[in-house]
Amino acid sequence: MFASQEKVQGRPIRLIAAACKNMGIGKNGWLPWTLPMEFQYLLDKISSVSRPGKKNLLVWGRICWFSAPENLHPIDNAVNVVLSRTISTLPKHAHYLCNNFESAVLLATSPLLNEEVETIWILGGVEIYKKALAHPWCDLIYLTDIMADFDCDTFFPGFDRNVYRLQDQRCSGSSVDLVRICFDKHLACKKYVQHFPGVPDECQQECGIRYKFQVFKKELGYRSKQEVNSNGLQTSVQPEDHGEKTINDTNVI
Ligand SMILES: NC(=O)c1ccc[n+]([C@@H]2O[C@H](COP(=O)([O-])OP(=O)(O)OC[C@H]3O[C@@H](n4cnc5c(N)ncnc54)[C@H](OP(=O)(O)O)[C@@H]3O)[C@@H](O)[C@H]2O)c1
Question: Partner of 223 at 20 to 30 A CA spacing, among 40, 110, 238, 239?
Answer without folding.
Answer: 110
